[in-house]
């Protein structure tokens, strides 16, 4: 199985079997429900970075999710946090997991990562102010597309469902129609690439509609992680899913093989059956931890179900998360808090009162102090609605006039997606 950023970036998300992923996942999965102390801090972490652990494998990933979650919660991230993320980009537009010294240019040995790039593109598009970085990131992602229409974890790596889904989300988040991005040879679309991992009518009924991560020896096996990622991907959505989505029209098993929206609906139904079987949560796939619930993938499943219009099922799993995620999030750090915030957002829940925990405050505490909180933004809007001019707007206008720079005001993208 290929190493993907979704696996090795955060124990909270996508703990697939891969070299670096094992290091991170092993630290989180077995102890997910123990009230263990937070991991030891890593020395000399860069200014602006969220989290206190070694960012070698997940710096860009966790930073991107943190910024996205703050944005959905009405928090304007610290400039230093946004600048740190933008500063991680290579000259060709790609991102790797972490560059300890951004002044050193990326070279042939730099592991450019589609997942980290797609996550960073979504985050920078959401917070605004880095249009060039977003455009260059999308351009690099297009250049890394495989002939089957999908993406692997790196340019040239075999396509997988997770990587293809997160890239679709990045394309949609930046206003690019995923179906317009076609492979240079054969002209296949990202949706065609993703549907290649769908389990069809020739498998056991319980697995029909699920997605595999990749084919192994020419065969597809249902993978809950890949299915949760593929649902929003097939619907053209990214990490941020707005509540109130409508369910895709029902299609037959055979029709869904060529209909991405229909496939998303089938995959959501299959995911619901798995969640129900375990009491509204998913189980870990990590060796030695199979008896442990998988909190991170359950949060992903909530977002997937919300995207597919399965609101009732999504809220049931969200309810489970409210009672079982506190210790896991504390141990896993900013990406975990971000996942829970995104799950709450997708279902119309309140991330500031999540089983008695204020997820937004917890996330904010893992990095630089935000530039403004939701309450500040509401006050500014009220002043403007009453005909007044907020202090913040005066500051922005003054800076723009003094520096001669126009500010790109980016609205909330969201797709969906990715």
TrEMBL record:
Q: Which domain of life is it from?
A: Bacteria
Q: What is this protein called?
A: Prenyltransferase/squalene oxidase repeat-containing protein
Sequence segments annotated as region (Disordered) = 353-383
Gene3D superfamilies in alphabetical order? 1.50.10.20
Signal sequence annotation:
1-34
Q: Which UniProt keywords apply?
A: Membrane, Signal, Transmembrane, Transmembrane helix
User: So where does this one cross the membrane?
Assistant: 391-409
